[in-house]
Design a protein that fits this description.
The structure is a homodimer of 360-residue chains. The first copy, chain A, has 360 residues and is an alpha/beta fold. Helix content of chain A is 43%, strand content 12%. Chain A contains 13 helices and ten strands. In chain A, helix 8 crosses helix 9. The first copy, chain A, is globular and about 60 Å long.
Chain lengths: 360, 360
């Protein structure tokens, strides 16, 4: 058996208000006044001077606001890389992603593609990246995806929704400031938090699990439960703990994998553009067969927070749509193997998946 | 408030049998055939071909066996650095520490001192190291110290037992193979495991705690309890989980600190040479006043495993010995502040400490 030599984020700051340390962190990483820092920021902050005024811009540094209304795409990465290459004579000193999973994944992918030839879709898969990325920093403003610690960046490409999984993907620096998550709308808070919860359920119930991933997954699960089910925390502590749940949840994937919900949710996102967190929730709600205890607690948390999940998403789909959805989902081989073992195709057939999708 | 930009170990392998991947890990780090890897190995393995035959020696690579009967010393680090500098024309490609906390701390300190001028005692303290260390790898063979993830290397110097705390201290690579801990004698297994348990109690009950450290500390505490109190695990799983307890316990110190037991144990080690883990146990057994629940569970675990702690250690000490012990212990200001707050000196006086030491 071969074990992964897992790349961890080599630097992390945690603390309420630590966002104000960004300047000090970036300063020694600036190569010169012609090599700017590029800040990719969720456009929900565009009219938020409380956040934007604290971005330490000097010389040619640039903010690019990006909508997270749609999931990140390989063509979007390619366009950002072209835009940056055309605007500056020198490679940037660094890329800083500020936002949720979409912004963090874009920042990771742009940092990789600034140093690697071709287009982003050529690197979707496992260990296809050959050159180190530009220095890149992740600053989550919503908790749950685990994108801040993962070695993947999930992108929708021309053929697949699939991550660029590589040792060069993880951030060089992460800044965890729970205060940045204060203004997240309730439904997003729930969907993204549940992304983390579902990670944990899938990881802890998977065949790939070992004690490393288990310890992170169990802690993340407990923290999710504290935040969404027990509800005994004040708001500040709840934000702190959800940020740590996301962190540990991301780490729990190091030697394990996600499972059925993510595999099916990828298909949903690819065809319908459903957001990752919301898609996971919609799928997971139907997975009693695979994760009975996890789904039971999920439904309880959904009730507590009065979350109504979208219904009838697949009602108007054509056979061709279903076929694409099923192809994308069944392409997630490691996820299915983790969930159900090597013989997963004896359980999961195109017909079975179609029947499940039709209920959503 | 300023938050530490914590340096994490950037690469980790976890898995039973992963020790066999060492060659593959080191290969790309070898600069040339004149720049050897130096393996610092606990001499308990000297006559253990099952381990030694798996060390991937080529060219001028060298094994140096080191006894862990005594705690690591600054003069020992200086001697090792001189020996390596004299034996080779080039700086080593890397230093690999294989053993418990003593070997791991020596490896970290030697890697630092190969690139920094002067003697190791000049760097005891916080952030005194100015140059990056030589590439260094940590491979624990006993679980509990957390030395595999910490940013310190605790050394006994001419004046103090104090760590070289720096951003350059952490390993560049850690390999966690629980099978390497299979032959640890029971009392060492207990003392070193309890070092971790005591870390957690001190961290979780400290004034420095935040949600980052708390989440790691809680998980580590739970794993210690599973291993030493619940005892429902088979041997393999018990080793796996204790290795993870140590890892998380080390991380829990990132934004917190240890406390009363460590502060007093440092004094004990300095004057009497008491081993770190054993010293912590001897001290902690007397700390009901500070950690009532933690000490209660500790005593229960001590009973379960039929551990007899040494008594009367301080019986023959002179006043001068006590003064030294108290000076070293009271010098650990951050530990006392974490345990008891800024006004710790209102509780902890030389007289109070003397009274406590006299009971040990």
């Amino acid at each position: 058996m071969k074990f992964k030599n897992f790349p961890m984020v080599p630097r992390v700051v945690f603390g309420r208000g630590s966002f104000d340390q960004l300047n000090e962190i970036l300063l020694p990483k600036r190569r010169n006044d012609k090599a700017p820092f590029i800040f990719l920021i969720d456009d929900v902050f565009e009219n938020n001077p409380e956040i934007i005024s604290r971005i330490p811009l000097i010389f040619d540094d640039q903010i690019i606001f990006i909508s997270s209304d749609t999931e990140p795409k390989t063509v979007q990465v390619d366009a950002l890389v072209s835009r940056i290459n055309e605007a500056f004579d020198e490679k940037p000193s660094g890329i800083i992603g500020i936002g949720g999973g979409t912004l963090l994944d874009l920042a990771k992918a742009v940092a990789i593609m600034l140093n690697n030839k071709g287009t982003a879709d050529q690197y979707q898969g496992w260990d296809l990246v050959k050159k180190d990325a530009v220095y890149h920093v992740g600053i989550p403003t919503i908790s749950g995806t685990g994108a801040e610690v993962s070695r993947t960046t999930v992108l929708t490409g021309p053929v697949m929704k699939l991550g660029i999984n590589s040792d060069y993907t993880p951030f060089d620096q992460v800044l965890l400031d729970p205060e940045l998550t204060a203004g997240v709308p309730k439904h997003q808070w729930f969907y993204t938090g549940m992304d983390c919860y579902i990670h944990c359920i899938e990881s802890l119930n998977g065949t790939y699990l070992n004690a490393f991933s288990q310890s992170y997954g169990e802690k993340s699960y407990e923290l999710c439960k504290e935040v969404f089910y027990d509800q005994s925390l004040d708001e500040e502590m709840s934000r702190d703990k959800l940020m740590m749940a996301s962190w540990h949840g991301g780490m729990s994937i190091a030697y394990s994998q996600v499972g059925v919900a993510h595999a099916m949710s990828y298909g949903l996102s690819y065809v319908l553009g459903t957001h990752h967190g919301e898609g996971n929730c919609i799928v997971f709600d139907h997975l009693e067969e695979f994760y009975p205890d996890g789904v039971k607690l999920f439904k309880a948390m959904k009730d507590i927070h009065e979350i109504e999940l979208a219904k009838g998403l697949c009602a108007a789909l054509t056979d061709a749509d279903f076929d694409t959805m099923i192809r994308v989902s069944m392409g997630m081989v490691p996820l299915w193997e983790n969930a159900l073992g090597k013989d997963w195709q004896q359980v999961i057939t195109p017909e079975k998946l179609r029947g499940m999708y039709e209920k959503m």
